[in-house]
Amino acid sequence: MLVVIPWGLGLLDLDILDPLRRWWLLAAFPGAASFLVPRGPAAAALAGVYAAGTIALLVALPEVTGRAPVRRPSAWTTRPATTRQATIRQATAATRLAAWSAPVRAAMASALVAPVIASSALVAARGGYPLFGFSPTVLTLTVAHFHYAGFAAALIAALVCRALPGDPRAGAAAWSVPAGTLVVLAGFFLSDWVELAGAAILTAGLWLAAWLTWTRIRPRGERLTRWLMVISCAVLPVSMALALSWAVGRAAGLPHLSVAWMIATHGVTNALGFAVCALLAWRTLDRPALATPTPATSTEA
Predict the structure, then answer these.
(1) Cα–Cα distance measured from residue 157 to residue 170, given in angstroms and rounded to the nearest whole number
(2) According to DSSP H, which parts of 190-222 are helical?
(3) Tens digit of pLDDT for each residue in 259-274?
(4) pTM for this entry
(5) Transmembrane region positions (predicted)?
(6) What are the DSSP calls for 218-264, one per residue?
(7) Residue pair 47/126 in contact by the 8 Å Cβ criterion
(8) Using the 8-state DSSP alphabet, how is residue 133 labeled?
(9) CA separation for the pair 213, 221 (Å, rounded)
(10) How many Cβ atoms from other residues are within 10 Å of residue 288's Cβ?
(11) What gap in Å lies between CA 159 and CA 275, rounded to an integer?
(12) If we measure between CA atoms, which residue out of 207, 185, 209, 208 comes closest to residue 198?
């Protein structure tokens, strides 16, 4: 909540979120501080501040889904000297948004909604309330899951799809990540087998996004960007294989890692190795480089 969300918001290229991104830490710090306070009303109130910030993200949903009305600069709020610049800036943003494909919009919409789910679980967990019958421990894991699998993974899949317009594989990855996350969420309420199906869809989408990043996008960056993408793409097959094996073990009653070991392995590698490195790489990637076609056979790191 302190790093991944503000970094990700900067990559969405949505002017409407710029003020929220600049002031994000005012909501994120109370949310993080809620873990330092014993469970109860005070901790829940701190988490509630963060929840309010995540709900504010939904203001961008109409633009992401293509249902926002065209916003024009107002004569009452815009000085004449800046009206033309504001008009040009808004026209450029509208052109950019219009070029987004359906899978890009779906993945980005999913990324905006995921923090709301995470913060709702956080409020319940820090308040000690068993939301939908789930214990505070499970709810705390849900907070992490919907920050990384829900927000970061969906955003990264959307960025891959946006960088490779017209590539059906990128579109499949962008559809699969939010779909897999949604099925995993449904599995919490239905059965372990449904959760396994969601994990399989999510894993397939992330593996595909990683492969496309490695072969098509990584060669376009500078040295630091390429190495960050190497790390994020290299750890993902291992971390998601752990998630898949854990889901299989729970559904089929087979031996599998404990929750503590899953946090130490799958959780840490996905958070630091995949999400943080990938977001850093995308932040350092020059936008003009995305327009440069690169052969898929390049192997330079």
Answers:
(1) 8
(2) 192-212
(3) 899 999 999 999 999 9
(4) 0.84
(5) 43-62, 106-125, 145-165, 172-190, 196-215, 227-247, 259-282
(6) GGGS-HHHHHHHHHHHHHHHHHHHHHHHHHHHHHHT-----HHHHII
(7) yes
(8) G
(9) 11
(10) 8
(11) 13
(12) 185
CA distances from 27 to 2, 23, 24, 74, 152 (A): 9, 8, 6, 30, 18
Candidates 128, 131, 108, 107; CA nearest to 118 is 131
Is the sign of the CA dihedral 168, 174, 176, 182 positive or negative? negative
Query: Six-digit token pair at 49?
Result: 């501040």
Sign of the alpha-carbon torsion through 150, 25, 60, 85: negative
Residues in the chain: 301
Residue identified by tokens 């993945």 is 107
Decide if 247 contacts 199 (C-beta within 8 A): yes
Average pLDDT over residues 242-254: 92
- 174 close to 103: Cβ distance less than 8 angstroms: yes
**Mean pLDDT score, 160-177:** 93
C-alpha to C-alpha distance for 222 and 284, rounded to whole angstroms: 8
Which structure tokens are listed for 115?
Answer: 């923090």
Flag whether pLDDT at 71 surpasses 70.
no
